[in-house]
Amino acid sequence: HKQSLARYLSRRLTNNRLRTAADHWIDAHNAPLATLKKGYFDTDNPPVREIVMHAIKRLATRNVDRAITVWAAQSKRFQFSDNDLGQIKRSLAIAAASQNHAERIALLDRVPPANVDDKVEKYRIRESIETNAWEHLVRWTKDEPVGSTGILRWRYWRARALQSLGKKPAAN
Whole-angstrom Cα distance, residue 47 to residue 98? Predict the structure, then answer.
């Protein structure tokens, strides 16, 4: 329903450039890989970058490995801001964690501090416990949580991680 509404609204746009961008955005939502191969994406401009980012995020929900590969190529073709790069790293990490991807810890570790939110924090805790990635958990919990994770829970998992690494005095 949302896509048909978006398609309907895009047809009502009077500006051809905006209508074209909206159509590509909808296509990127439905078929990210195929859409990124279109000539529209030969030019670097803000709407194109936004659509590329959306396509990568959508692709990541389906196939993390393919999204990483496509992103590696796309990130060199366009002038993404640091925040854009961080958003994509966050999306790749969350998709990897939710799909139990082998590289989920490494991808969660690559999320810049400015892009860490409640969801990233929760995945970091959950995945580091599940995979015994205690070194990562110690590093990730050295500062206060930015999300809704309670400070006592945060300190508990930091202490458990330190204890698991044999650093008992620091955990007490």
Answer: 28
Using CA atoms, how far residue 37 sits from 9, 28, 40, 73, in Å, is 24, 10, 8, 12
Per-residue model confidence as pLDDT tens digits over 131-152: 999 999 999 999 999 988 899 9
- pLDDT tens-place string over residues 106-139: 999 999 999 999 999 999 999 999 999 999 999 9
Report the sign of the C-alpha dihedral through residues 33, 34, 37, 38, in that order.
negative
Nearest Cα to 61, choosing from 3, 101, 117? Answer: 101
Which is nearest to 127 in space by CA: 161, 155, 159? Answer: 161
Spatial separation of the C-alpha atoms in residues 66 and 50, rounded to whole Å: 19
Return the SS3 of 50.
Answer: helix
Q: Distance between CA atoms of 170 and 159, rounded to whole angstroms?
A: 7
Residue tagged 């690494």 (tokens): 165
Q: Are 11 and 23 in contact (CB under 8 A)?
A: no
* Apex 24 CA angle, 22 and 25, nearest 5: 60
Q: How far is CA 61 from CA 96, 168, 170, in A?
A: 8, 39, 39
